[in-house]
């Protein structure tokens, strides 16, 4: 999905990383988009997203561009990718927790 709508000139974070930002926020703190950056100022952002990433990179503008890209994506492709990932995670969970 990263290669579909990633404008490296406007944001050095991939689409996947920006959507990951949104999911972490929803699951952990549920802040409004304009407060997401504040949430990540208290987190180890480099560990979550990679070397060189700062909390300032995880602002509402980058997340909104990711949501716009997700909206423009072909829905069945997004669904297919997410389905495969979830299936792989379920298999990994069974492998690690049932042995």
Automatic annotation (TrEMBL):
Residues 7-82 form the DUF4277 domain. InterPro entries: DUF4277. It comes from the Bacteria. This is DUF4277 domain-containing protein. It comes from Siminovitchia terrae.
